[in-house]
Specification:
The complex is a heterodimer of chains A (368) and B (501).
Chain A: H1 2-27, H2 32-44, H3 47-72, H4 80-97, H5 103-132, H6 136-156, H7 162-167, H8 195-212, H9 214-224, H10 226-231, H11 236-260, H12 274-277, H13 280-290, H14 298-319, H15 324-350
Chain B: E1 2-8, E2 11-17, E3 26-30, H1 37-44, E4 52-57, E5 60-62, H2 67-72, E6 75-78, H3 90-95, H4 108-122, H5 137-151, E7 155-159, H6 167-182, E8 186-191, H7 194-200, E9 203-208, E10 211-216, H8 223-231, E11 249-258, E12 267-275, E13 279-283, H9 290-297, E14 305-310, E15 313-314, H10 320-326, E16 328-331, H11 335-339, H12 346-350, E17 361-362, E18 365-366, H13 368-381, H14 398-410, E19 416-420, H15 428-444, E20 447-451, H16 455-461, E21 464-469, E22 472-478, H17 484-491
Parallel strand pairs in B: 3-8, 3-9, 6-7, 7-8, 13-20, 13-21, 16-19, 19-20
Antiparallel strand pairs in B: 1-2, 1-4, 4-5, 9-10, 11-12, 11-14, 14-15, 17-18, 21-22
Helix pairs in contact in B: 14-15
Chain lengths: 368, 501
C-alpha cells in the first residue's frame, strides 16, 4: 500500500504536468495528442530513437543517482555541473597522458579519473559544510563557476589541440583523444555506447551502497538525524563530506562519459558549462526528485527526461513548436512532482495512527 | 463537556466522556499517555473537533473551532511541549498573537513590565529580555506559565506543568494555582504524578483507553488506588531491590569544568565516583549543568579542565565512539532528538551503535539475517510493542521508543550506564519496566548514573543520591537517609549539613 502510493502519486503529477503541456500545445496551434505521439514516438517508438534516448539519459541518470545519495544524507548538491566538468577534465588529462594504453585498461582508468575528479570537487564543498558550517547550496553553486573557468583556462592553454594553435584558429578544445579510450558502441550503426551499461551499474551500486552497506547506513542515519548519530558515535562531518564526495564521483563519471562517448571524441568548451553538460548537472536533481530519491527508480525517471530531450527536436520538426516548450514542460513536471510530495506525505500519515496502540501522541514527545 | 466521542482511524480516542470544571476548583484528569487526556483537552482547546457530544461554557453550548476561538472564550493552555519560538525573547514570545496597544508597532516595554510584575509576584524568575533558546527546559516551562498567566484565562488547562520543577517550586506553583482557582478560575490539571494529583486536586477523573474509569477525590483515594485505576492492574511503584556488593569505581570524575551553551562553566569543579554495582541518582532542577555533565561524560562536549575516567581509562578528550568502546552506554535526555533516528525502522535503530562491527557487518556489508534475529530477540526481551521490526520508529509510542533505546544500550553490556530522564513522558507501565531494567544493572556490576528531575524516580532507584545545583554537587546522601525535604533544600542551593555527610 505504502509503495503503491509512493509510485502512483508522482505518476499522476507527471500526467497532470503533461495535461497542462497539452494546453500550451493547443495555444501554439498544435494538436496535443499528435504532438505527444510524435514526441514520445521519436523517443521510444523505434530502436534508433531509444538508442538516442538512452544516450541522453546517461548523464541525467548518473547525476541523479549521485543526488539520491547526497539528499539521503541531507546534503543539497547543486554542484553537479562543476563536478561533471572536473571529472571530465581529469579523465581527459589521463587520456592525453596515456594514449597508448590498451582499451581494456584505458577505459576503466578514464572512468575512475572522472569519478576522482568529481569526488574531489564535491568533497571540497562537503568539507566546508562539515567543518566550517558553510552552506553547501552556496558553495556547490559557486564551485560550478570556478570549475567552468578552470576548464576554459585548461582548454585554451595546456590542453588545447596543438593543431588549433598551428592553424591559429585557437578553438578551445583538446585534440582527438586516443581511440583506445572511445567507449565501444553497443549496437551497430547506432550511438548507444558502453556508458549506458556503466550508468545502470552505478545506479544498482548506489542502491546497494545505501541499503546494504554500513557506509550507506551511516549516510542515511546522519541524513535523518545528525544528533542521534553523533550520540551513537557516528562522525557527522566525515559522513557529510563523503556524501558529497560520492555524489560528485557520480557526476564526474557522467562528465567523463560525455567526453569519451561523444561524436567528436574531444573535450570542447563554448565558455559556459551548459554547452558541455547540457545542464545535466541541474536536471539530474529533477530526475532524482521524480524517483523519490531512489537510485533504481532513477532509471525510468532519467529515461523519461532523456526521452523528452530527444522528442523535443522531433516535435519541433513535426509541429513547428519551439523546442523551448520542452524546457517549460520539464519545469512543470518538477513543480508538480515536488508539490505532490505533500499529498504523498498526507496519504502516508493518514495510515499512521493504526500502529499507535496505546498512546495518542506518537513518539510521546513529537510536537503535534 | 458532555458525551464527548472522538474517533481516529483505528482508535477510539475518546469514548462518551463527561467532564466538568467549576469556577474555583482544580479538577485533575489522570491517565496514562494515550488514555485520551490530551485528545479531550485538544478538543476543549479547539485543536480537534469532537465527533459526538457537546461543550458547554458558562452553561451555553459553544463550538470551539480553533485555539484562537478557544482563547477568545477564555480558555488558556499550558502545553506539555513548549510552544515557544526559540530565537525570540521571552517578551516577544509572550506578546505573540496578542494585540499591541500601539497598533502595528510592538509594545514590548509594557509587555516586559507586566512580565516582570508577574514574575515577581509568583517568584518565577523569568526575565523578559532573555532569548528563549538560551533557557533551560525548566526555565522555558516557567515562560509557558507566564504566557498563560498573562492572557488571564478563566479556564486554565495545565498539561503536566510540574514535569520539570523542583519539589519546592512545585509547592510554590501549587500556591499560585490555588490562588488562581480561588480567584474564580477553573483549572484542569493533567498529570500522572500521583502525589501531586493528591496534593492539588479538588476532584479527580481517571481515564483509561478513552473511557472514564473512576471519579474520586483526594480524601477518598491514595496513590495505589489511583495507579490501579489508571493501569487497570496492580502496579509496583518502586522496583525490588537486591542487596549487591559494590565493587571498584568504574566512573571517576575529578575537578571537572565544562562550558555550557550560554557562557561560562555549566559544570564547575565537579567530583564524582560511581562504583560497580551501584546506582547513583543525580537530582536537581534542569539547567544546573546536568546536561553538560552527561554530554561531557559521553564525549559530546569537551571539558575545559578536569578528568573523566571510565573503567580505568582516561576518556576526558575522547571521541564518543571510543568512549562507547570503553564501556559507556548512554540513554540521552531527548529520546527523539538524540536517542533514536525516527525515520529508521526498529531494526535499524537497534544496530545504531554496532552496525559497523561483527556479526552485523562483514567487510562493510550489512548482514540482514543477523540484524533481524538480533532485533527480534531484543524486541521480545525488552517487551517493545511494535507491529514488526520493520515498523518506522517514530510511529511507536514514547514508552516503546525508550524501551527500544534501553534495549540497544543495555545489550551493549555496559560498564557504565548513563541515563538521563529515563522515564520522562513515559506511561506508568513502561516506566515500571524501565526502572526494573536499570535496577537489574546493579546485579550485572554496572556503575549506573541516573539523572532525573523526578525526585520519586531518583529516590526509588538510587543507592546514593547526589544533588546538583549551579554546576556543583551540593551533597551526596545515602538512599536510606534521604528525605524529600533534605534533597529539595539542596536543589535550591543549600549546602548539605555537615552532620549528614
Amino acid at each position: 500500500m505504502k509503495s503503491f502510493i509512493s509510485l502512483i502519486i508522482p505518476l499522476c503529477a507527471v500526467l497532470l504536468a503533461l495535461m497542462i503541456g497539452a494546453i500550451m500545445l493547443l495555444s501554439l496551434g498544435a494538436n496535443p495528442i499528435s504532438g505527444y505521439v510524435t514526441m514520445f514516438g521519436a523517443a521510444f517508438g523505434s530502436l534508433e530513437g531509444f538508442s538516442e534516448t538512452a544516450v541522453k539519459s546517461i548523464p541525467l541518470l548518473l547525476v541523479g543517482v549521485g543526488i539520491c545519495i547526497a539528499f539521503r544524507a541531507n546534503v543539497i548538491n547543486i554542484g553537479g555541473e562543476g563536478q561533471m566538468v572536473m571529472g571530465a577534465l581529469l579523465a581527459t588529462a589521463v587520456a592525453l597522458a596515456f594514449p597508448g594504453l590498451p582499451s581494456l585498461m584505458l577505459i576503466p582508468m578514464v572512468l575512475i579519473a572522472g569519478a576522482v575528479g568529481g569526488a574531489f570537487w564535491g568533497s571540497i564543498a562537503g568539507a566546508l559544510k562539515a567543518y566550517f558550517n558553510v552552506s553547501e547550496i552556496l558553495s556547490t553553486i559557486m564551485l560550478n563557476i570556478v570549475a567552468v573557468q578552470f576548464m576554459n583556462f585548461l582548454l585554451r592553454g595546456f590542453m588545447i589541440d596543438p593543431a588549433e594553435v598551428a592553424r591559429g584558429t585557437g578553438i578551445p578544445q583538446t585534440m582527438r583523444l586516443s581511440e583506445n579510450a572511445d567507449l565501444p558502441i553497443l549496437l551497430e550503426g547506432m550511438r548507444m555506447h558502453l556508458g549506458v551499461v556503466v550508468a545502470l551499474l552505478v545506479a544498482v551500486g548506489a542502491y546497494f551502497l545505501l541499503w546494504r552497506t554500513a557506509m550507506g547506513y551511516r549516510l542515511r542515519a546522519v541524513g535523518y538525524n545528525p544528533d542521534a548519530s553523533r550520540y551513537a558515535g557516528i562522525s557527522v562531518p566525515k559522513n557529510v563530506t563523503s556524501a558529497l564526495a560520492f555524489s560528485g564521483a557520480m557526476a564526474g563519471i557522467a562528465g567523463a562519459i560525455l567526453v569519451f562517448g561523444s561524436e567528436s571524441h574531444r573535450m570542447v568548451t563554448d565558455g559556459g558549462s551548459t554547452g558541455f553538460t547540457g545542464s545535466a548537472g541541474f536536471n539530474g536533481i529533477v530526475v532524482a526528485l521524480l524517483a523519490g530519491l531512489h537510485p533504481i527508480w532513477s532509471i525510468p525517471s532519467a529515461l523519461l527526461f532523456g526521452g523528452m530531450l530527444v522528442g523535443a527536436n522531433a516535435l519541433q520538426r513535426a509541429a513547428q513548436v519551439p523546442s523551448a516548450l520542452i524546457i517549460a514542460l520539464n519545469g512543470l513536471i518538477v513543480v508538480f512532482v515536488v508539490s505532490s510530495e505533500y499529498f504523498k506525505q498526507r496519504f502516508l500519515e493518514s495510515g499512521r495512527v493504526d500502529i499507535v496502540d496505546e498512546e495518542d501522541t506518537p513518539a510521546g514527545g513529537s510536537h503535534e | 463537556m458532555r458525551g464527548i466521542t472522538k474517533k481516529f482511524p483505528g482508535v477510539l480516542a475518546s469514548d462518551n466522556v463527561d467532564f466538568d470544571v467549576r469556577a474555583g476548583e482544580v479538577h485533575t484528569l489522570l491517565g496514562e499517555n494515550g488514555a485520551g487526556k490530551s485528545t479531550l483537552m485538544k478538543i476543549l482547546y479547539g485543536l480537534y473537533q469532537q465527533d459526538e457530544g457537546e461543550i458547554l461554557l458558562h452553561g451555553k453550548p459553544v463550538q470551539l473551532t480553533s485555539p484562537a476561538n478557544a482563547i477568545a472564550h477564555g480558555i488558556g493552555m499550558i502545553h506539555q511541549h513548549f510552544m515557544l519560538v526559540p530565537t525570540l525573547t521571552v517578551a516577544e514570545n509572550v506578546s505573540l498573537g496578542l494585540k499591541s496597544t500601539r497598533g502595528a508597532l510592538t509594545d514590548l516595554k509594557t509587555v516586559s513590565r507586566r512580565i516582570t510584575e508577574l514574575s515577581k509576584t509568583f517568584g518565577l524568575h523569568v526575565y523578559p529580555d532573555e532569548h528563549v533558546w538560551k533557557l533551560s527546559v525548566g526555565e522555558r516551562q516557567r515562560v509557558e506559565i507566564i504566557k498563560a498567566l498573562y492572557r488571564d484565562a478563566s479556564i486554565l488547562i495545565l498539561d503536566e506543568p510540574t514535569a520539570v520543577l523542583t519539589p519546592s517550586e512545585v509547592d510554590d506553583i501549587f500556591v499560585i494555582f490555588r490562588r488562581l482557582a480561588e480567584d474564580g478560575r477553573g483549572l484542569v490539571f493533567i498529570s500522572h504524578k500521583l502525589k501531586e494529583v493528591l496534593d492539588l486536586s479538588d476532584k479527580i477523573t481517571v481515564l483509561r483507553h478513552g473511557r472514564v474509569t473512576g471519579d474520586t477525590t483526594p480524601a477518598k483515594s491514595d496513590r495505589h488506588d489511583l495507579a490501579q485505576m489508571m493501569v487497570g492492574r496492580e502496579v509496583k511503584l518502586a522496583p525490588d531491590k537486591h542487596e549487591v556488593e559494590t565493587g571498584v569505581p568504574l566512573l571517576v570524575i575529578e575537578d571537572l569544568y565544562v562550558d555550557g551553551d550560554r557562557g561560562r562553566h555549566a559544570v564547575q569543579g565537579l567530583n564524582l565516583e560511581v562504583k560497580s554495582g551501584e546506582i547513583l541518582g543525580i537530582a536537581g532542577i534542569s539547567g544546573n549543568g546536568q546536561r553538560e555533565l552527561a554530554e561531557a561524560i559521553a564525549g559530546l562536549r569537551t571539558p575545559q579542565s578536569g578528568k573523566i575516567t571510565i573503567n580505568g581509562q582516561d576518556t576526558t578528550a575522547s571521541k564518543p565512539a571510543k568512549i562507547r568502546k570503553v564501556g559507556l552506554s548512554y540513554v540521552p535526555e531527548e529520546r527523539m532528538k538524540d536517542g533514536a533516528v525516527g525515520d529508521f525502522d526498529v531494526k535499524e535503530n537497534l544496530i545504531l551503535l554496532n552496525h559497523n562491527s561483527e556479526p552485523f557487518c562483514k567487510n562493510g556489508l550489512l548482514n540482514f539475517r543477523e540484524i533481524c534475529s538480533h532485533s527480534e530477540k531484543l524486541v521480545k526481551e525488552y517487551a517493545v510493542k511494535t507491529p514488526s521490526i520493520d515498523a518506522t520508529t517514530k510511529n511507536l509510542s514514547g514508552g516503546n521508543i525508550q524501551k527500544l533505546i534501553m534495549a540497544r544500550e543495555l545489550s551493549a553490556g555496559p560498564k557504565v550506564l548513563l541515563a538521563s530522564q529515563p522515564t520522562r513522558g513515559v506511561d506508568i507501565g513502561a516506566a515500571e519496566y524501565i526502572h526494573e531494567r536499570i535496577s537489574q544493572q546493579r546485579q550485572r556490576g554496572t556503575a549506573s548514573v541516573v539523572i532525573s528531575e523526578d525526585l520519586d524516580e531518583v529516590m526509588a532507584l538510587s543507592d546514593r543520591i547526589a544533588v546538583m545545583f549551579d554546576g556543583k554537587i551540593m551533597g551526596i546522601i545515602n538512599q536510606e537517609d534521604a528525605t524529600r525535604e533534605s534533597i529539595g533544600l539542596m536543589m535550591t542551593g543549600e549546602e548539605q549539613e555537615a552532620a549528614s555527610v
